[in-house]
Amino acid sequence: MLLQSLRVRSFRAHTDTSVAWATGVNVIWGPNGAGKTNLLEAIHYVCLTQSFLVHNDRYALRKDAPHFEVEGTFAGVRRQPMTVRLVYMPSEGKQVFVNGAPLERLADLVGQLPVVVFSPDDYELTAGGPDERRRFLNNILSQARPVYMNDVMQYNRARRQRNELLRQYKKRPSSPPPDVLDPWTDKVVTLGSRVIQRRAQFLDAFAAYLDEAHAHIGQATERPSFTYDTVGDLPDAPTTDDVETAFRETLARRWEAEQSRGTTLAGPQRDDITFRLDGLEVRRYGSQGQHRTVGMVLKLAQYLYLRDQLDTAPLLLLDDAFGKLDSTRTAAFLELLQSDVVGQSFITTTDVAPFRAHLSFDAPPHQAIHVARDSSGARVSSDVVATAPDSA
User: pLDDT digits over 296-341, tens only?
Assistant: First the structure.
């Protein structure tokens, strides 16, 4: 899959910017605050209908603009050209058009245009709380298995209803009547067990991709591994029935606590993954360098997994991903980006010079894109986004 062109209007720093992309490595360079990362964010919007930076779309809207638009033209998607246009209006929300036709559900786009993001925030995958790791799981599985995202959304709705009942009866002397609570408990268990079983199945396969990714970029000798922490002790390759049994047993053990706290205390919303290097837990004992290494290995493993599952090369977005790497690892990663392992990639940086030693921008398949402020100090506009020659 290739992104051929991108146009953004009233999007963050950009009033109206159009870029034609190279098929290999695209290095987007310029000063901080010029709008480099905005272009990666716009690509993410046309692939997954959302930002990888913020949860509120209003933050992406240029000041005083009534709406923003992002449009991408793709090749190699199910052997047909594809143009995706996303429009956001604060009063109406988002609407997506594919080849001019409106999508009924935003979720219908997810998985058609796979994308993986490397960013400084990858540090949080191993150093942060479990929410970050659950988002990582959801991002991969939603792109690889659209039905998974539907189960997650239905599970969250059922859990909210169950939590509302628990809250209503929290200060009452009696528990919720079984005929009122049990149907929601059954929904929570059924849907949540499907989510957990798919996560367990994915992680079982993902271990091999983690090893492959580490072999590509891991200069250190420590071997990464992980364990999945979920409801109860599940057998290897658990079935949905196995998960349902463990889920119900855990809910039964925590029933009194659920009553006193007024919330559901078991399920995929409490899942976590423990990452290790040679058996040592990274979150507790890893150095900053080890955290960054594991984060990069995880994202590359995600890329390799999605490539195989979807039978197409995802877009690879690297937002200031090289700033913390030494020259040896930078060279190894750039070599990987030029190999047949990785398809089209997009890199933001403040300095293009280090990349010139490893990439030729004089002819395809790579190019450098310069993003800069204009003379008045305003942010980038379309007439200052161009291919950058060696003299730039």
Answer: 899 999 999 999 999 999 999 999 888 777 777 788 888 889 998 9
Q: What type of residue is 370?
A: H
Name the residue among 336, 361, 346 with its Cα closest to residue 314. Answer: 346
Look up the CATH superfamily of 1-114+313-392: P-loop containing nucleotide triphosphate hydrolases (3.40.50.300)
**Which residues neighbour 165 within 8 Å (Cβ) at sequence distance 6 or greater?**
176, 180, 181, 184
Give phi and psi for 151, each to the nearest 5. Answer: -65, -40
Q: CB of 286 within 8 A of CB of 123?
A: no
So where are the chain's domains?
1-114+313-392, 123-311
How many other CB atoms sit within 10 Å of the CB of residue 302?
24
Query: Nearest Cα to 314, choosing from 146, 150, 144, 147?
Result: 144
Q: Which two tokens stand for residue 172?
A: 């009452």
Query: Is 192:185 a contact under the CB 8 Å cutoff?
Result: no
The tens digit of pLDDT for each residue in 135-161 reads: 999 999 999 998 999 999 999 999 999
Q: For 210, list phi and psi in degrees, rounded to 5.
A: -65, -40
Residue found under tokens 């007439």: 383
Specify the residue for token string 């367990």: 200
Determine the length of the chain.
392
Q: What is the largest CA-CA distance in the chain?
A: 77
Residues 6+ positions from 35 with CB-CB distance below 8 Å: 12, 13, 14, 17, 371, 379, 380
Q: What is the DSSP code (8-state) at residue 182?
A: H
